[in-house]
Amino acid sequence: MRQSQLFTKTSREAPKDEQALNAKLLMRAGFVHKNSAGVYSFLPLGWRVLSKIADIVREEMAAIGGQEIFLPVLVDKRYYKATGRANVDITFEAKGKSHDTGEFIIGWSHEEVLTEIASRFVFSFKDLPFAAYQIQTKARAEPRAKSGLLRGREFVMKDLYSFHASKEDLLRYYEEVKKAYFKIFKRCGLETIYTLASGGVFTMSNTHEFQVVAPLGEDTIYVCQKCKYAENKEVSKIRGISKCPKCSGQIQEKRSIEVGNIFPLGEKYSKAFDLRFTDKKGEKKYVVMGSYGIGLSRTMGAVVEVHHDQEGIIWPKEIAPFGAHLILLGEESKVKEVSESLYGSLKKHGVEVLYDDREQKTVGEKFADADLIGIPWRIVISERTLQKDCAELKKRNDKKVKLVKIKNVQQTI
Ligand code: ATP
Ligand code: MG
Q1: Intervals of CATH 3.40.50.800 along the chain
Q2: Which residues surround ligand 2, an ion (CB under 5 A)?
Q3: What pTM, to 2 d.p., does this model score?
Q4: Burial of 286 (0-12, 13-18, 19+ CB in 10 A)
Q5: Would you say the CB of residue 151 lies under 6 angstroms from ligand 1?
Q6: 14 CA to middle of ligand 1, Å?
Q7: For 322-412, which CATH class?
Q8: In whole angstroms, what is the distance from residue 389 CA to residue 383 CA?
Q9: Ligand 1 pocket, residue 267 CB under 6 Å
Q10: Is the pLDDT of residue 371 over 60?
Q11: Ligand nearest to the CA of 201
């Protein structure tokens, strides 16, 4: 894409009413716009990143048999009433004008909705197991929506639900999801720590969170430095202990960001919606369920919290808005000609390029924008580089620049 056509612009100053580092950088670079506290719009660059995270999630969900669906945003109150979740603090209610007598809650998690749907299709053990997921905006009236994309009043979530004939089968699948989650976060450039947590409003048993260590994270976890066993603050029994009970490694307290959470739900929801099946012996049994969430927008915020420097964002390769940032410097016609042709040929070979073809911008401004936006490769074409028939290449997370022959640029990146 030509940067001269991009309708957003970068800004030098940090937004005044924003404290969170992720939001400051994302807003300055033009990835997101803040509409209200905890409510953000995704602009072209930001939407590209979010879509790439969604692509990764879809690939890894497909790899574990997840079937994609799309459930309602307006969730009839009766669903949450059935499980006693209609009045939880985070509820956003939606009411129409007088002619619409429906009572809705803007969906904040969809266990109830999908369990009822499943009850229309599941009759026998032969109908199990299966798993379905969606990627959708959720709304939650969060008391402290001050952390940018990390805690929105609305946010983009992937929620997966699985249905099984036995607890053993649920636990087998739980392990598969766990592995898929590690892959997803790794591909997004995040190392995650598998952390024991409580069930909250979902389930009575323990659950597991995927935590990213970050100095400005809202959560506190206790992690063994040797085996990485971890517990969150709410459930921790290793808090205050210096040696890990499992491997005698050292326990440390860390601030962290919860990017994913998986829940062995058991029979809570299948009981509420009478979701039963006939087993091999002909007996009626309740379906055993699990649910598994990832905050896609929170993941994007977490990446920025972890991968940045003084100058701006440093996007991991797989989720960067573009693979390369091609920068044209100067007015000379030869420079323009070579840049245009390189832009065309990179695109033709499948490289996603943001092409800074803007006139009236100084070298300093173009470089500052490139650093702020944070695309993995910077390719500069100027009169000076063309004297050697070269472009100057630099990785965003590297200080070194190198001259590469124009014809070898594509191969190098
Ligand atoms: P938290 O403990 O941070 O409030 P949660 O445990 O209530 O989150 P879940 O219901 O498990 O969240 O949601 C699944 C995932 O959705 C979380 O792991 C997180 O990545 C994301 N998420 C939850 N709440 C928010 C929010 N307000 N803003 C952005 N992402 C969120
Ligand atoms: Mg959670």
Answers
A1: 322-412
A2: 261
A3: 0.97
A4: middle
A5: yes
A6: 26
A7: alpha beta
A8: 9
A9: no
A10: yes
A11: 1
